[in-house]
Design goal:
By secondary structure, this protein is α/β, with parallel strands linked by helices. The chain has a domain at 2-26 and 85-221: P-loop containing nucleotide triphosphate hydrolases (Rossmann fold, 3-Layer(aba) Sandwich). It has 9 helices and 7 strands; from the N terminus they run βαββααβααβαβααβα. The chain has helices at 13-23, 54-61, 65-76, 99-102, 105-116, 134-151, 169-175, 184-190, 214-224; strands at 2-6, 29-33, 46-47, 89-93, 120-127, 155-160, 204-205. Helix 3 (65-76) packs parallel to helix 5. It is globular and about 55 Å long.
Length: 232
């Protein structure tokens, strides 16, 4: 199973990949770094920086960081087949700039080629502290739906750093009704996005750094492709 680990900068994606791969050590697990701008914090079985480095692209093409990141994605397509190892679980660590995958043609093509190689899901890693208000929580639900739509793969939402800041998603949803002002109707409508996310069925809280909640993540991953039902 291919597992695309997606989330904003600072959400704990790389820590999740590092420690979740250790949790899966009884399986044939592989890790892949798809961030051309950062060295992995784990022993990657495949690393885009062996072929494409964003800092080199900046110098060679005289680009700023954003242009160099986009160019790096374009060049990654030349090597993507070398970045898809075989294994029971293959964890792909993606850049913090989610738009590189969600809104660039190269990023979407990378995901498509990975998906073509076997069962593929996305894990959307969210910083629990960021999701601690009704407004932010609703925006995260909307992001989850957008990720599924753009990448065309099932997406599991995982609330990370719950050892530092715990949240109660059901309580946050109830607080939506108390929001006043011009955005109240918009927020209320966006709350319906929960029906298109895994949060509707299962709320997964983890601490990537401590390794807690990984059992729930693995169970949800396997149930996505289970013929016996959904991840309820």
């Amino acid at each position: 199973m291919n597992v695309m680990v997606i989330g904003p900068a600072g959400s704990g994606k790389s820590t999740f990949v590092k420690n979740f791969s250790e949790f899966l050590k009884e399986y044939d697990v592989k890790t892949v770094n798809l961030d051309p701008a950062s060295d992995p914090i784990y022993n990657a079985d495949a690393d885009i920086r062996d072929f494409v480095r964003t800092e080199d692209i900046m110098r060679e093409f005289k680009l700023g960081i954003n242009g160099a990141l986009l160019k790096s994605m374009d060049l990654t397509l030349n090597y993507i087949e070398k970045l898809i190892p075989e294994g029971d679980y293959v964890l792909f660590d993606t850049p913090g700039q989610m738009e590189l995958f969600l809104y660039s043609k190269s990023g979407l093509e990378i995901v498509k080629r990975i998906s073509d190689s076997g069962w593929t899901i996305a894990i959307f890693v969210v910083d629990s502290n960021i999701a601690s208000t009704p407004e932010n929580f609703i925006s995260i639900l909307a992001q989850n739906a957008v990720i599924s739509l753009r990448l065309l793969v099932p997406t599991i939402t995982v609330f990370n750093k719950c050892d530092i800041f715990d949240i109660d998603p059901r309580k946050l949803l109830k607080e939506v009704d108390r929001i006043e002002g011009v955005l109240s109707e918009l927020i209320e409508k966006l709350s319906e996005f929960i029906d298109y996310t895994t949060v509707r069925y299962r709320i997964i809280k983890i601490s990537a750094i401590k390794g807690t909640g990984f059992d729930d993540v693995l169970s949800a991953m396997n149930e996505v492709f289970c013929a016996c039902g959904d991840i309820s």
